[in-house]
Amino acid sequence: MQMKKILFNPLKNHDTSKKTNLYVIFAILAFCIATAIAQGTSFFYAPHYTKTLVLTCLFVTYTGLLFYLKFSGRFDEDRIVFMIILLGILFRCSYVLLSGLYERQHDAGAYTGMGTNFVNPGHIGYIEYIYKFHKLPDLNPYELFAYYHPPLHHIISFLWLQLNIMLGVSENLAFENLQILPLFYSYLCMVITWKILKVLEIEEKGLYIGLAFMAFHPATIVMAGSVNNDMLTILFMCLTILESLKWIQNKNLAGLIRLALCIGFGMITKLNSAVLAIPLAIIFLIHFISVLRTRKKSILLTWIKNYFIFAIIVAPIGLSWILRNLMRFGEKPGVPVPGETSPMYTAHYSLWERLGIPAFSDWNFPFPFHPISAKACNNTWVIMFHTSLFAEEYPANLSDILLILCQITFILAVIFGIITALLLTAVLFRHARSRLEGQLSEPFPPHAPGQFTNQKTGRENAIFLLTGYIIMLISFAVFVIIYPYTCSSDFRYVAICLVYISIALGLGNKYYLCPVYEREDSVFAKLKSVSMHIINWGIIMILAFSTVIYIFWERW
C-alpha cells in the first residue's frame, strides 16, 4: 500500500517534502536564535549542572515527541528525517552552550577588544582586525598566524559581530557568539547531506543511517562550535557535491552557474575546497567529449559558451585572494609553518612511517588520543582516526569506565572506517551498473542540448564520487608531505569524507538490504546482506558510544 502511494500520488509526496523543508528551516533558525539569546543572558553564566539540567529537559521533550509520532502512526520518511535532523540540532546546540569560545578550537588566537590597538593572531584575531579597522589586513598575511586564509568566513563573522553590537550585546558575548555561525553552517550540512542522498534515490533505512552518520558523528558536532573557517569550507564542499550530482542529471547552464559560485566562494573561504574541482573537471571532460561526438555545431557552440560562463564566474571569485597576495606582497599560496624545532615536526621520519600502513603499536589503543608530539605518534592515518573522534584532546583525568569506552569506540572506528571505505567503492560500481542496466532515467529529447547522456548518469555519479574521495585522500597525503607536522594530519582537513561515507551507507542499504536483493538465494547475496547489517550496527554503536563519551567527559 505504501508503494502505491509513492507511485500514484507523487504530488502529495512532493508537498510533504516541501513541508519537511519548511519545518527543518524553521527549526534551524529557531535554534540558532535561541542559542545566541541563551549565550547573551544569565544562562551563559549559569553553573554547568544548571545548563545540563535545562538541556536534559529539551531532550526529554524531544523523546516525548518521538514516542508520540511513533505510537500515533505518523512516522513516515519525512518525519523521521526531520527528527534525525532535529536531534542533530539539539546535540550541536548543547555543545555550543556547554563549551566556550576557546574550547577545542584550532588556530583560534585571541581578541583584546575595540579599546586596544593590538593586532592579535589566529582566526579570532583576524576577525577582530576587520572589526576594529573595517578593512582587510594591510600587513603581509604570511607574517601573522592564520591571516593567510582567504577572508570570506572572517568577513561574515565581522558582520555578525557588528549585528550583535548593534543589538546591544556586550563585546565579550558578541565574540562568544561567533560560534553561532559555524553552528548554523553545521546545521545546513545535515540538510545538504539529506539532499545528496535523495538525489541518489536513497530512501528509508539507507537514508536514515546515512543522514544519522553525518548528524551524530562527533567531528561534525565539535566543528559546529569551532570559530575558524573549517565548517564554512565543508558547507561549500557539500554544496559542490550536491550541485555536481544535480548537474550530472540535468546538464544545464543554471547548474553550472551554481557550481561556479559554490567552488568560487569555497576557495575564498579556504583554498583546499578547490580539490573537488578535479573530479568535476573529469565529468566536464566526459560530457564535452560526448558533445563533440554529436558533430552538431549548435550544440558544441552552446556548451563552449556555457563552460566559458562557468570559468568567468569561478576564476575571479576563487582566485581573487591568491592574486591579491601575489600583486601586493609577492606571496604565493602556502601555509606558514612553525619550523623544524617544533615537537610536531615529522620530516625526520620516513614516508612509510608517516603515510604507510601503521604498525600495531602506532595505534596506541590503550590511550587512543592525539599526543601532538611527533615522537609519540607520527603516522598520518593514526592521527586522522584519533582526531576524528576526540579532536586534539589528550585528557589527563579520564575515568576508567570512560577510557574503556573510548578504547572500544576507537577500535570500532578504525575497523568500520576501513570497511566503509571499501563499501563506498563497491556500492558506486553497483550504482553505475544499476543505472545503466535498469535505465532508471528516460533520455531527454534530442533538441535539449547536452541532455542526451542522461542514461549514463549512474556511471558519471560513480566516477565523480569515487575520484573525489580518492583525490581528497591523496591531497591530504600530499599536504602532510609538504607541511610535515602532526597538526597537518588532523581529521578536519578531510572531514568532507564523512559525506562520502554517508553515501556509502545509504547505497549499501539500498542495494544489499532491499527486499528484492534479500530474496536472492545466492550465498554471495546473503553474505552481503549480513555484512550490511553488521556495518549498520557497527556505525550505530560508534555514534552511540561517542555520544555517551562526550556527555560524561568533564571537559567543557
UniProtKB/TrEMBL annotation:
The keyword Protein transport is annotated on this UniProt entry: no
Organism: Parablautia muri
Entry-linked Pfam families: PMT_2
Keyword Membrane found: yes
Lineage: Bacteria, Bacillati, Bacillota, Clostridia, Lachnospirales
Protein's recorded name: Glycosyltransferase RgtA/B/C/D-like domain-containing protein
Domain Glycosyltransferase RgtA/B/C/D-like: 178-316
Keywords, sorted A to Z: Membrane, Transmembrane, Transmembrane helix
Top-level taxon of the source organism: Bacteria
TM spans (from-to): 21-46, 52-69, 81-102, 180-197, 206-225, 274-292, 304-323, 401-429, 462-485, 491-513, 534-553
